[in-house]
Amino acid sequence: MKNAPIFITILACVLFISFAAFGQEVAGILKWEQLPDMAGYDWSSEDLVPSAVADDWICENGMPINRIEWWGSYYIPTAFPYQNSDNFDDPTLVTNTPPGTVTGFRIAIFEHLEQGECFPWPMPGDLLYMTEVAIENANETLYGVATKPGGQQENVWQYSVALDEFFYQELGERYWIAIQALDGGTWQPGATYAQMIQWGWHQTNKLLYGQGEDAVQIWYIDQNKNECDEWDLLVDTEMAFRLYTIPEPSTGMIILSSLGLLGVIIRK
Hints:
Strand content: 35-45%
Order of helices and strands: HEEEEEEEEEEHEEEH
Radius of gyration: 23 Å
Structural class: alpha+beta
Largest sheet: 7 strands, antiparallel
Distance between the termini: 9 Å
Number of domains: 2
Low-confidence stretches: 5-26, 250-266
Number of strands: 13
Helix content: 10-25%
């Protein structure tokens, strides 16, 4: 076949484009980014307390979320429970090994509520999406060592989850995401503080990534809350996370066009 060299070249290009697109679909394309502040600390978001932290983002391209990354750390408070990890020791610093207390994570996405007469600041509204993932599927890896404002160091752990069910959203809308560690534990009278290892969601650098509203935290042990002030404002604080989406439809059109060209070459 006189066109064999051209055929081989086109075939190689088609395969390259196809595999590249497949890799993007699996890994996802970056949609929103707030990297961890390695001079910051963490905020309790766990069913051990229980507590929860949420932060917001804006849908800038209308594409669904297929993967989520976030960062967090472990800490041992001197008074349990404590709302953040500043000034407390990290039990993983010596061995660089997670303590095994967290068994999974709950990821929840909410609609956006604007500040109003009832709500003293912007916060999550109705629940739109929720999933739980086991720790072995959260890809927990050591990201680096943060030095907190008080001078103590802590390991920062990175997590990454591919969503079995994508979260579909509307272009230009603001949403809130809450990530809560699951360990099935509760505070037991008589337990030492060393037995009560907390997990916190790591904060981002607001000067670099402060694109949205301040994060908020639910502290469930406060029994005086009502629906209007259930979420406490974390002033000048936002959380570290990344959102990924699937490739634009144009990628598929490139593949189809390449396959059509390949068919023409073969017929000749």
